[in-house]
Every structure is written in C-alpha cells, then in structure tokens.
C-alpha cells in the first residue's frame, strides 16, 4: 500500500484529538512515520507521555523511576509508526502563559492536510513536515532533498505547490524559502542538495 504524507498528517491530527491536553509537542512527519518530542520536563512531561501511551496503546520503554527519558513506539492507523520521547528544555525560563494548545495543533494539521496531499502528487521523495509548538506559536517547515542530478529549483517548485507568494534563496546546502497557505499560515521550505 502506498502511504502518503497527507495520510500521516491526518492520522496525527486524530491522535492529538484523542490524547487530550499535552505539553507543547514538536512533530516531524514523513510518509511512514512521525516523531513526537514532548517539550517539557518533570511531572508535566510524564503526564503528556502517559496520555500519548494511553491513546496509542504503546508502552513507555526504557524509563527509569521518576525520569522523563522513556520512549513510546506505537503503530497508528494507516500503517504510520509513532516514536515519541521527551525533549527536556536545556535551560529553565520564566514560565509564560501558553498561547497554543493540543487541540489547536490538531486543527493546524487538518488545515495542512490538503496542502500535503498536493505535495504527495509532486512526488517529493523523503519529504519531512515539521510542526513545532513552542508554547507561543506554531512553526511549519517542509524539508526535502534534491538528489544528485536533480535541479534544486525544481524540487523547491514542487515543495511550494499550493503555497502563495513563494520566495526562495540559495544557501550553502541548497535552497531555503518561504510561502503562505491560502489561510495565511507561513510555511518555511528547506531543500538540501545531496552530493
């Protein structure tokens, strides 16, 4: 069965709906898997991992007593594999009132699904969609590769399918860019040239 980035995005949106409130989560999605990093520490991280475990039926493995270092691996619907872990903040900052939410993240993913379906039609091999929740805003980034012989501009054009006002610029490793979804959400694009 052919899997797609859009199906992964939709499966993760449904997972977030079923989890209830989580601490901010950084997601990296591809056509077959999703990596979820709970950006918290202590009891808040443990509670989020417990909710993810309950929603997926996966158990937290490698966890020491009173530590947040466990990993959940679970099969989601549509043959998508989830790997979730805690990404403890490097330094403590003054707590701020959270402006994002798990339900807002699920809504964002549903907004991204039609665009990711258009990306799948462009056959971006190995593309990754990152959705980063820092507690204040969501950042959306699409990363793709231009294999040897591929034109990075053509890959960038495929990555920008469905976006408006796309601008790209050369970098040492390929191309970076930015565009907007019709709803106004900014999407960052990164094309890495493989040698």
Give me the secondary-structure category: alpha+beta
Strand residue content: 25-35%
Secondary-structure element sequence?
HEEHEEEHEEHEEE
Low-pLDDT windows of residues: none
SSE order and pairing:
Blueprint: H1 5-19, E1 25-29, E2 33-38, H2 42-56, E3 60-61, E4 71-75, E5 81-86, H3 102-121, E6 128-133, E7 138-146, H4 152-159, E8 164-171, E9 174-180, E10 186-193
Parallel strand pairs: 2-5, 7-10
Antiparallel strand pairs: 1-2, 1-6, 3-4, 4-5, 6-7, 8-9, 9-10
Helix pairs in contact: 1-2, 1-3
Describe the fold and architecture.
It is a single chain. A hairpin with a 4-residue loop joins strand 6 (128-133) and strand 7. The mean pLDDT is 87. The protein starts with a helix and ends with a strand. It contains four helices and ten strands, in the order αββαβββαββαβββ. Helix 1 (5-19) crosses helix 2 and helix 1 runs antiparallel to helix 3. By secondary structure, the protein is of the alpha+beta class. It has helices spanning 5-19, 42-56, 102-121, 152-159, and strands at residues 25-29, 33-38, 60-61, 71-75, 81-86, 128-133, 138-146, 164-171, 174-180, 186-193. It has a ten-stranded mixed beta sheet with strand order 3-4-5-2-1-6-7-10-9-8, covered by helices on one side.
């Amino acid at each position: 069965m052919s899997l797609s980035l859009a199906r992964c995005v939709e499966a993760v949106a449904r997972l977030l709906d079923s989890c209830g409130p989580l601490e901010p989560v950084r997601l990296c999605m591809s056509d077959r898997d999703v990596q979820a990093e709970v950006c918290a520490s202590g009891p808040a991280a443990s509670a989020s991992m417990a909710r993810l475990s309950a929603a997926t039926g996966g158990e937290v493995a490698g966890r020491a007593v009173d530590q947040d270092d466990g990993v959940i691996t679970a099969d989601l619907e549509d043959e998508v594999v989830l790997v979730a872990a805690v990404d403890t903040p490097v330094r403590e900052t003054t707590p701020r009132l959270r402006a994002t939410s798990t339900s807002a993240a699920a809504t964002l993913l549903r907004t991204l699904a039609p665009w990711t379906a258009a990306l799948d039609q462009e056959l971006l091999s190995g593309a990754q969609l990152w959705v980063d929740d820092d507690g204040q805003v969501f950042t959306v980034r699409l990363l793709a590769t231009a294999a040897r012989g591929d034109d990075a501009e053509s890959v960038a054009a495929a990555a920008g399918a469905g976006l408006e006002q796309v601008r790209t610029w050369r970098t040492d490793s390929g191309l970076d860019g930015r565009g907007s979804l019709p709803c106004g959400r900014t999407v960052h694009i990164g094309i890495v040239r493989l040698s």
